[in-house]
Amino acid sequence: MTSPRLVLASTSIYRKQLLERFELPFETARPEVDEAPLAGETPDATAERLALEKSRAVAHAFPDALIIGSDQVAHRGAQRFGKPGSVERACAQLREMRGESIVFHTAVCLYNSRTCQHQLAGVPTEARFRALSDEEIERYVRREMPLDCAGSAKSEGLGISLLDYMRGDDPTALIGLPLITLARMLRAEGIQVP
Q1: Which of 22, 28, 46, 143 is the most exposed place for a label (fewest CB within 10 A)?
Q2: Is 97:81 a contact under the CB 8 Å cutoff?
Q3: Is the C-alpha dihedral spanning 178, 59, 185, 41 positive or negative?
Q4: Catalytic site residue 148?
Q5: Are 45 and 53 in contact (CB under 8 A)?
Q6: How do strand 5-8 and strand 27-28 relate by DSSP bridges?
Q7: What are the structural domains of the chain?
Q8: What pLDDT band is residue 3 in, cutting at 50, 70 and 90?
Q9: CB environment 160-194: b (16+ within 10 A), e (fewer)
Q10: C-alpha dist (Å) from residue 139 to 34, 89, 132, 161
Q11: How crowded is residue 113: how many other Cβ atoms within 10 Å of its Cβ?
């Protein structure tokens, strides 16, 4: 029996680089999903719903595959910090987050398009930002340009210098794809990792 195709329902270079660590062949597909939160939806619930929706959104193109969907919502209580998209918004986000603890809730879904069954989990990471000066914030943003990252910081790069600490069960979750959880899901589907 051959292994099912493995598909990453994402065009994120960060998630692609993380999944490459498993040294398994996979394809990528762009999920067309509205990422706006639903009325009254908690940040955790948003991330988990979107991870599932992203995996299902590409299932029609891959009828016998294991499809990986993932989403991340950065928040402090009900306040969300999305992808800034501009230098100005990135600096404004980091000014709001300085000296604060932010939760990055990263959800991952493994959807079996043959059986229509899925595994879904959320992996929170708490990141405490230092009391950053405006100069540190501007220097960081101009050097790393984290405009496509929730919370305006790349912990896998220079952004690590912005933090006092990180707390969580999986260091890859903060980058955007919790590999420890995903490996467990893949093994449950009979995929050998490692």
Answers
A1: 143
A2: yes
A3: positive
A4: no
A5: no
A6: parallel
A7: 5-188 (3.90.950.10)
A8: confident
A9: eebbeeeebebebbbbbbbbebbbebbeeeebeee
A10: 33, 14, 11, 12
A11: 22
pTM comes to: 0.94
Mark residue 33 as left, alpha or beta (left: phi above 0; alpha: psi -120 to 50; beta: remaining). beta
pLDDT digits (tens, 9 = 90+) for 142-165: 999 999 999 999 999 999 999 999
Question: Could you report the per-residue pLDDT of 37-78, keeping only the tens digit for each?
Answer: 999 999 999 999 999 999 999 999 999 999 999 999 999 999
The one catalytic residue among 71, 148, 169, 170? 71
β-strand pairing of 65-76 with 79-81: antiparallel
CA gap 126, 120 in Å, rounded: 20
The pLDDT-based confidence of 2 (bands split at 50, 70, 90) is low
